[in-house]
Amino acid sequence: MMKYLFRAAAVRRSLLAPLLLTVVLLSDACSKEEPQPRFEVSATEIFLSGDASGEESITVRANRPWEMTYTGEDFMVTSTDGTASEGCVTVTPTQANDEPNRRRLGSILLHFDNDRQQIEVAVYQRPATATRTVLLYMPGQSLLRYYKENIARLRSAVNTDNPGDGRMLICYQPESHYTAVLEELRYDSSTGSCKTITLKHYDTFDTGKPEDVARLFADAAEEAPAERYGLIIGCHGKAWIPASSGALPRSRRAGGAAADVWTPAAGAKPTRSFGDTGHELDITELASVLEALPFRFDYLIFDDCFMASIETLYDLRHAIDYVVASPCEIMAAGFPYDRILPHLFDDEELRPQLGEICREFWNFYQNDWNTISGNEQSGCISLTVMSELEALASEMRRVVEAPKTDFELSELQYYKGGTTKLFYDLGHYVQLSCGDQGTIDTFEAQLERAVPSEYRFHTPSYYSAYNNLLNPITCYTGITTSEPETTEPYASDFRHTSWYLATH
User: Fold this and answer.
1) Other CB atoms closer than 10 Å to residue 434's CB: what's the count?
2) Rounded Cα gap, residues 117 and 34, in angstroms
3) Digit-coded pLDDT (tens) for 276-306
4) From CA 329, how far away is CA 459, in angstroms rounded?
5) What does the pLDDT look like over 13-24, one tens digit per residue?
6) What is the DSSP string of 278-314?
7) What is the C-alpha radius of gyration for the chain, rounded to an integer number of angstroms?
8) For residue 92, what are the β-bridge partners?
9) CA nearest neighbour of 151 among 57, 53, 232, 269
10) Coil, strand or helix at 116
11) What is the pLDDT of residues 56-96, one digit of tens each?
C-alpha cells in the first residue's frame, strides 16, 4: 500500500491517487461504452479536535483515477490507496485552536483529471475549550443492560451538529463494581456515524466513595475542558433516604416496619429505584463533592427514581443551578437520550432547553412508551430552579407556623407504592394541611418560581415496582416531601434533614 503525506500550507499541491477500475459487463456484449464518472465521499465537512489530538478521515469512492488539491494551514493530509473503488483521505491538526469558536482551516478539492465532476471538503477545527462538556455518569451494574441501550441511543443521535462544539462523555462500569471507564462519543467523518474514544480506565473505582466520584468529575473537566458543564446521573435513587454512609447511623435505618420498604412486589417490572446495595452515595456526600469542585455543573439531570424531593434538592441548592428530576420511579429504560441530546448542548437559553428535556421525557412515556419491551406509560418529571429554594424554605416555615387543617392521609397524592408511601406531593400537602389561605397562596407563588408549572409534566398515572401497579395522579406539583410519613425510622430520620431544620 502506497502512502502519500502532505503538510498543508498557503500553496496548492496536487495528488494523483489512481484507483483500480472494475470492468462493467453490459447486457449487450457488443457495448464497450466507458461508464459514466462516479464520485462519492463519506462527508463534505471534516471537524478536527480543538486540542490537536487525533485525526479525522473521509472515504472516497470513484470509478476512475482522481486528484486532490487543497489549501489552508495548521493541518496535515494523508492519502492512502484503497481497494479497487475506495480510498481514504485523513486529516490531522497540527495546532490547537485557542479561539473561542470553531475555525475554518482550509478545504480539500477532490476531482477527476478532466474536472468533469468535483467535490469540495471543508476542514474545520473545533475550539480547544468546548462550549459545553456533558458527563453521563451511570454507576453500578444491575442496570447495565439498560445503560448499554441508553448509550446506543446517544450514539445514534451523534452527528455533525450534535454535540457540535460540545463534548459528550460517559462513565460507567461494564466490568465490575470496582472498575470504571470514561469514554467520549464523537462524530466520525469516515463512517458518518458515532465513534467511541476511551479517555481513562479506572482500575480501582468505588461509586460509594466520595473521593472516587470527585476524581471522576475532575478528570472529566481535565480531559474535556469547557466553558460550561452539565451532569447526568443515571442509576438508582432513593431521594434523601440515607444510603451506606452519612449523618445517620445504620442502626437507625434497619429493621421494624421499614424492613420491606425497598422490596419490589412479586412480578414487578424493573425501575431505577433498587439494586447495587453497598455502592451508594448519600445525597449530602454528592452535594459536598459538587461544591468542592474547581468548576461548576450548571445543571444536573437525575435519571433516577424519587429525586424530585424537596429534602434532596435543598441539600443540593448551593451546588447546582438547575435540576431535572422525577418525583416517582423512572422505568428502567430511563430517558430517551437520542431525543434529548440536542437540548443538552443548546445554551442559547438554558432554562427553556432543560424544559424541553422535561417535555421530551414526558412525550416519550406518554406516547411512545410501548416501543420498549417491559415498559409502562409512566413518566413524571419537573425542573427545579435551585436559587429559589431558600425562599421556598422561608414560605414553608410560615406554613408550619400557620393554623393546621385535619385531613386524611389517604387523600394526599403519594408517589411510591407499598404500605410505606414515603414521598408525597409537596404542593398538595400544603393545600390540605395549612389552615390559612393567604399563607397557601404565597407558598404556591414561590413554588411556581422554584418549580415552574410550565416545566412540570406527568402521565395520567405512574408505575411503582413496590405495588406492581399503575397509580393514578390527581394532583401534581412536580416535587415531593416526606413530612407526612409516620413509619419509623423514616419519620425520625426526616427530622434530621436540612430541609426540616430550615423550616421548623
Assistant:
1) 20
2) 16
3) 677 788 999 999 999 999 999 999 999 999 9
4) 12
5) 333 333 332 333
6) TS---HHHHHHHHHHSSS-EEEEEE-STT--BHHHHH
7) 28
8) 76
9) 232
10) coil
11) 999 888 887 788 888 999 999 988 654 446 788 999 999 99
